[in-house]
Amino acid sequence: MKKIIALGGSNSKHSINKTLATYVANKVENVEVNIVDLNDFELPLYGIDFETENGIPENAIRLNSLIESTDGLVISLAEHNGSYTVFFKNTLDWLSRIDIKVWKDKPILLLATSPGVRGGIIVLQSAKTYFPYLGGNVIADFSLANFYESFLDNEISNAELKKELNHKIQLFEQKLNDK
């Protein structure tokens, strides 16, 4: 059975992006889902002096191993001022010190959501451009605007959005099965 990771790009204890990533990952058929909370992999602020003096933190090594051991990733990114959260970017910085191909050429279903009308679209576009450089094989992407109105009772309430998302999940499933 294939294994996938569901990951929200935030350190919020009540992350709507972790909620969306978990929801979507659990819609993928015939996979084992590992829900990753980045709070379990807290890292010091990256700096070359810190790395030189202390080496790569154990949490970065553990997360890197987890990514290596999976077949695909469902990642939902929070957007802070048009970019990644500092917490997520710091995680990427540490992981890239182990291997610049952070995502190991694994298939990725890339998501973003926010309480606002843009649904994290700026960070989503940025990640679609940047992740391939980091070994990210972005199969499909999906943005969910107005999270608190669009995600009710643990379900996407808009039929058209749900249909669009199901299509993206199918593309991701096909790529997982091609491996």
Explain this structure:
- Residues 3-144 form the NADPH-dependent FMN reductase-like domain.
- By secondary structure, this protein is an alpha/beta fold.
- The chain has helices spanning 16-25, 48-54, 58-68, 86-98, 121-130, 147-150, 159-178; strands at 2-9, 31-36, 72-77, 107-113, 137-144, 151-152, 155-156.
- The chain has a five-stranded parallel β-sheet, sandwiched between helices.
- Helix 3 crosses helix 4 (86-98).
- The longest helix is centred in the last third of the chain and has 20 residues, at 159-178.
- The chain is globular, with a radius of gyration of 16 Å.
Q: How would you sum up this structure in a few lines?
A:
With 179 residues, this protein is an alpha/beta fold.
Strand content: 15-25%
Described by the principal axes of the CA atoms, the overall outline is: globular
Largest sheet: 5 strands, parallel
Mean of pLDDT: 96
Q: Could you name the CATH class?
A: Alpha Beta
Would you tell me the structural class of the helices and strands?
Answer: alpha/beta
At the fourth level of CATH, the homologous superfamily is Flavodoxin domain
Pfam families: FMN_red
GO cellular component, one term: cytosol
InterPro entries: Flavoprotein-like_sf, FMN_Rdtase-like_dom, NAD(P)H-dep_reductase
GO molecular function: FMN binding; oxidoreductase activity
